[in-house]
Amino acid sequence: QVQVEESGGGTVQSGGSLRLTCTASGTIFSVDDMGWYRQAPGKERELVASISRSLTAQYADSVKGRFTISRDNAKSVTLQMNNLKPEETAVYYCTAHIKYYTDYAKLDWDDYWGQGTQVTVSS
Questions:
Q1: Partners of residue 119 on adjacent β-strands
Q2: Considering only CA atoms, which of 107, 119, 103 is closest in space to residue 32?
Q3: What is the pLDDT at residue 72?
Q4: 72 vs 20, 41, 99, CA distance in Å?
Q5: Which residues of the chain have pLDDT under 50?
Q6: Selection from 100, 106, 102, 79 nearest residue 90 by Cα
Q7: Are 43 and 36 a contacting pair, CB within 8 Å?
Q8: Is 85 buried (19+), middle (13-18) or exposed (0-12) by CB count in 10 A?
Q9: Are 98 and 110 in contact (CB under 8 A)?
Q10: 114 — phi, psi (to 5°)?
Q11: Which of 45, 68, 73, 121 is the most buried (most CB within 10 A)?
C-alpha cells in the first residue's frame, strides 16, 4: 500500500507565511514528480507548483517569487509559501507519481493524492 500525507496547513494573516510538507510512504520503489494543487470553494483544482526527481521546479504564474517548492528527500516535498493573500485560501493537496510494488512483487506506476490540508489567509 502507498500513502501520501500532507501537514502544515493552518490560518495566517494576509502577508504571512506557511510551510506545507508532504511525505509518501509504503511499498514504494521510486517517486517521480511531486506537486501541490489547491482548490478554493466553488473553483476548480489548480496546479500551484511541481518538482521532478531531477529537481526541476515549475510554478503557477500567480505564485512565482512567493512560493518555493523543494525536495527534502526522495519521498518528501515542501512548499514554502510567503506573502500569502486572502484569495489563496483553499484546500491544498499533494500529489506524487509513484512506482510501487504490487501484491505480486511486480512494479507499476500510479498517481497518488493526499487528503488535503486547509490553508486560510485572513485579511
A1: 10, 90
A2: 107
A3: 87
A4: 12, 30, 18
A5: none
A6: 79
A7: no
A8: middle
A9: yes
A10: -80, 175
A11: 121
Distance of alpha carbon 45 from alpha carbon 98, whole angstroms: 21
Q: What is the 3-state secondary structure (H, E, C) of 27-84?
A: CEEEEEEEEEEEECCCCCCEEEEEECCCCCEEECHHHCCCEEEEEEECCEEEEEECCC
Q: How far apart are CA 117 and CA 109, in angstroms?
A: 25
pLDDT at 42: 94
Pairing of strands 90-101, 28-39: antiparallel
Cα–Cα distances in angstroms (integers) from residue 118 to residues 18, 23, 53, in the given order: 11, 17, 26
The upper half-sphere exposure of residue 118, i.e. CA atoms within 13 Å in the direction of its Cβ, equals 5
